[in-house]
Backbone:
């Protein structure tokens, strides 16, 4: 009896299918680890994007998306014609500039300093002390600041008064608002933000330091020619990502510091959306404000990413 001929193409197809199944089965634990994060972004990031539609509607919760009337770009026109628009826009850009150009370098400097510490017990202790403020809420931090700088019986103001100086009006003085905001952000987040830079420095080849020392390079020269180039791509990527949030200035923090006396310098888009959108139930209008913020962030990320490619860096995408 003759045997049926086996086509090589069918054999190769079955082999490829088995190989794919084997690879998928082997990677199943990793896929299961990815699944929660994947579902998080789908449910809480992508699905809510459908809500952008109400920026072009006069949204009525009882009528829903389909029943609410369309108004086109009217809400954007209302935003740009608002007498407070340029004040809010200026305040947002100033505070974002403080975050970008004064706070952003702090974790880099801190990581470089910690990387130079040779005593392990001191380094670990310093890192712990620097990380702890990140886990405190803004409510606690602002409350402590208010207690210390209270003009009536604040601890620091009492100390200043005993030295013969005038008490500091920190919480209600518009001139001190931005400095207070920046110092609190640095104290709370600089240590935590330094972690990623410390991780990048840990990957530097130790032989580079040995070669630099043989050539007579000082510690500062090693930082300049070895550490900073090692951090360059990380700095660029994080800077690009931070540009995407240039219009987000930290709602909770600013709202807690804000009062009637400093509102001219503290009112930003985040607090404006809360005041108008929540307190006055202007859902469509504040959605348009949020979309305006997102478009500015998207444009800045795109331009910064293109610029990073021009200088030879990979960028975000």
Residues:
């Amino acid at each position: 009896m003759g045997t049926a001929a086996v086509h090589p193409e069918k054999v190769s197809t079955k082999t490829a299918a088995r190989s794919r199944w084997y690879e998928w089965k082997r990677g199943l634990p990793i896929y299961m680890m990815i699944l929660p994060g994947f579902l998080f972004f789908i449910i809480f990031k992508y699905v809510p994007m459908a809500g952008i539609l109400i920026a072009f509607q006069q949204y009525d919760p009882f009528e829903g998306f389909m029943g609410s009337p369309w108004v086109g770009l009217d809400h954007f026109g209302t935003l740009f014609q608002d007498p407070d628009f340029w004040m809010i826009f200026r305040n947002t850009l100033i505070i974002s500039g403080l975050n970008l150009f004064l706070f952003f370098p702090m974790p880099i400097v801190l990581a470089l300093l910690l990387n130079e510490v040779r005593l392990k017990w001191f380094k670990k202790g310093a890192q712990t002390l620097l990380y702890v403020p990140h886990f405190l809420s803004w409510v606690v931090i602002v409350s402590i600041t208010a207690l210390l700088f209270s003009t009536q019986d604040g601890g620091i103001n009492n100390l200043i008064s005993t030295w013969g100086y005038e008490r500091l009006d920190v919480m209600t003085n518009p001139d001190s608002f931005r400095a207070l905001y920046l110092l609190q952000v640095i104290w709370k987040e600089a240590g935590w933000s330094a972690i990623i830079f410390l991780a990048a420095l840990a990957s530097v080849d130790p032989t580079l330091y040995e070669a630099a020392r043989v050539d007579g390079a000082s510690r500062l020269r090693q930082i300049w020619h070895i550490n900073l180039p090692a951090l360059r791509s990380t700095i660029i990527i994080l800077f690009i990502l931070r540009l995407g949030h240039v219009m987000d200035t930290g709602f909770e923090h600013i709202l807690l510091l804000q009062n009637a006396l400093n509102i001219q310098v503290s009112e930003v888009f985040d607090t404006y959306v809360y005041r108008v959108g929540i307190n006055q139930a202007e859902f469509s209008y504040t959605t348009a404000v949020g979309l305006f913020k997102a478009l500015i962030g998207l444009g800045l990320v795109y331009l910064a990413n293109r610029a990073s490619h021009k200088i030879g860096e990979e960028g975000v995408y």
